[in-house]
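Mods, move this if it's the wrong board.
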Amino acid sequence: MRKVEVLEIVKNLKFDTDTTIFTDSDSTELYINRPSKLSKRFSNYDVNKNFQIWMRLGDRKFRPNHLRLLIDLNLRVRSRPDLKRKLLLAFDNIFYGSDPDEVLEELAKDKFDHYLNSIKLIGHLAQIFFVEQEYAYSKESNYLPPTLFLQGWIRQFIDSPDEIDNLTMSVANRRPPAEKYVDKENKKSKNHVEGLRPLWYLQ
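Not the wrong board. Structure tokens:
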């Protein structure tokens, strides 16, 4: 599904119900839930827009966070540096709204020695994180679109030669991605440029 279609699913999600976003070939399920009550930690969220992202495999279920997505992509590019540009382009296209199943069709055929989940599940996870940020987050952002913050980190985890522990520590400390991955695309930046080429940050 394209991002706009997933957004409609999220908008129509009823309280205390689950909706599957993607099921992998090994039966790993990515699904969402809208709780009718918010915990104290999320008391400032809009209960009508808030939703939770879950993964389930057999009896094991958990809420994945952004680090799962980022670490998976970093592991992939370390095992297959020749596919860096293909990975960057694919996840840029997901960021711009494309269907993960379509843009990752060819990459799904490639062999990676190290990863956490299938490339298609990781693509759908990225997509639902983008939808979550667009729809459910109301805090002021230094980025326009606000999802550029996450996309900047996706680009950096794929492209940067920095060690994975340094990258993950930066994300955990809520630091922004490097300017080179976001600046020209950020409409709030004085360096914003219209009509950028694909993979402009590599040029």
